[in-house]
């Protein structure tokens, strides 16, 4: 944690809302990205990120300064997103449907900026197939470079549970990408009408 | 063909010993299943590494600021309501317990008699007090009695204000940091 952050936290604890706003300004992108990768939709990610900051604001007096502030904040966001997914019982909505619904106009929404390539669409589809905790572990590992111990702290899991979740998630992603590749190959064959293609 | 522990090594990110690496390479040369798995994982890693960090729409912090005051007010209202409901609940439980105790320790006739006795005693004492106060006011000069009335009324108002203020502060305790 930087000295400036420590000062902002101290000031926020003394009732200075502007100091907390500085923390929001600093961490808006990582928190939003986590919510977006977890929930897969920009408006929900915005709401979840706002709610995460509000929860952090309320719980600030319980924040242990020995912990990294970003880990603590991302942990709040991850837990909130996991709860949201549990509540709405997300059942892998195909991403093409989400894209059709979301991209009804030409406004440059965040997901349009991010998912502007085939790879990003593929990534969304793959992430959607994972359960919420596996997804959270994967996001924290790949986007934030968290170690197993940091992920376990953020998600309130044991280190061995994190290892097995990451293992399962990577295995599932590998299988899905393999299946997707085979599907696209089969589609191409069908298109060109040649089994030998 | 047995794929373990090769599959585990491919999926896990833990570093391998030189011997394990040789074993892995030999197995991959012969096993298409594990080769495909490794290629797929490389593809997954590549996808994840290349993925950008999504940013919120401009004005995120301003949106947070504008809703903060509303959220705080709502939380304060909720806590105050909770506090006063708890107080009311505690008072009702206490009254209920007292009623139950009286009902269990005396008969209905005794209760009525005791109630009548106590009410009469209170009324008699109130009457005595009223006479005593009236007598004092009659003996004092008029401006003095008005002063006493004014002081008593102000004192009562002040006490009530302090009491309400203290209750309010207690009800909001712990809502926010300061």
Summarize the structure.
The complex is a heterodimer of chains A (197) and B (178). By secondary structure, chain A is mainly α.
Fraction of residues in helix of chain B:
over 70%
Name the poorly predicted regions of chain A: 92-106
Rg from alpha-carbon coordinates of chain A:
19 Å
Sketch the major β-sheet of chain B. none
Report the principal-axis shape of chain A.
Answer: elongated
Low-confidence stretches of chain B: none
Q: Which structural class should the secondary elements of chain A be placed in?
A: mainly alpha
Largest interface: A-B, 50 and 33 residues
Describe this structure in words.
The complex is a heterodimer of chains A (197) and B (178). With 197 residues, chain A is an all-alpha fold. In chain A, 76% of the residues lie in helices and 0% in strands. Mean pLDDT of chain A is 83; it is low at 92-106. The N and C termini of chain A lie far apart (56 Å). Chain A has ten helices and no strands. Chain A has helices spanning 3-13, 17-39, 42-59, 69-88, 95-102, 110-114, 118-128, 132-142, 148-155, 159-192. With 178 residues, chain B is mostly helical. Helix content of chain B is 82%, strand content 0%. In chain B, α2 (18-30) packs across α3. Chain B starts with 5 loop residues before the first helix and ends in a 7-residue tail after the last helix. In chain B, 6% of the residues are buried. The mean pLDDT of chain B is 86.
């Amino acid at each position: 944690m930087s000295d400036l952050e420590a000062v902002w936290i101290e000031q926020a604890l003394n009732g200075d809302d502007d100091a907390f706003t500085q923390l929001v300004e600093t961490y808006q992108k990582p928190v939003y990205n986590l919510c977006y990768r977890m929930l897969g939709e920009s408006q929900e990610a915005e709401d979840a990120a706002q709610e995460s900051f509000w929860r952090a604001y309320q719980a600030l007096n319980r924040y242990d300064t020995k912990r990294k502030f970003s880990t603590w904040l991302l942990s709040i966001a991850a837990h909130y997103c996991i709860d949201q997914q549990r509540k709405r019982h997300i059942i892998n909505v195909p991403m093409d449907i989400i894209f059709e619904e979301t991209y009804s106009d030409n406004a440059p929404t965040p997901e349009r900026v991010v998912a502007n390539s085939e790879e990003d669409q593929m990534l969304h589809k793959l992430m959607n197939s994972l359960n919420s905790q596996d997804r959270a572990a994967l996001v924290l590992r790949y986007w934030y470079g968290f170690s197993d111990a940091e992920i376990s702290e953020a998600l309130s899991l044991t280190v061995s549970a994190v290892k097995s979740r990451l293992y399962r998630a990577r295995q599932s992603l590998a299988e899905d990408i393999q299946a997707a590749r085979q599907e696209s190959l089969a589609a191409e064959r069908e298109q060109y009408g040649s089994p030998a293609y | 063909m047995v794929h373990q522990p090769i599959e585990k090594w491919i999926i896990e990110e833990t570093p391998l010993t030189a011997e394990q690496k040789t074993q892995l390479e030999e197995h991959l040369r012969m096993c298409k299943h594990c080769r495909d798995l490794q290629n797929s994982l490389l593809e997954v890693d590549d996808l994840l590494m290349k993925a950008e960090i999504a940013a919120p729409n401009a004005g995120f912090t301003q949106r947070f600021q504008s809703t903060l005051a509303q959220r705080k007010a709502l939380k304060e209202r909720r806590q105050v309501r909770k506090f006063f409901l708890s107080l009311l609940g505690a008072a009702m439980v206490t009254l209920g317990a007292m009623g139950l105790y009286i009902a269990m320790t005396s008969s209905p006739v005794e209760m009525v008699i005791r109630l009548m006795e106590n009410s009469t005693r209170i009324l008699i004492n109130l009457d005595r007090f009223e006479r005593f106060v009236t007598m004092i006011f009659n003996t004092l000069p008029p401006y003095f009695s008005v002063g006493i009335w004014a002081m008593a009324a102000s004192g009562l108002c002040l006490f009530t204000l302090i009491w309400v203020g203290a209750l309010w502060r207690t009800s909001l305790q712990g809502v926010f940091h300061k």
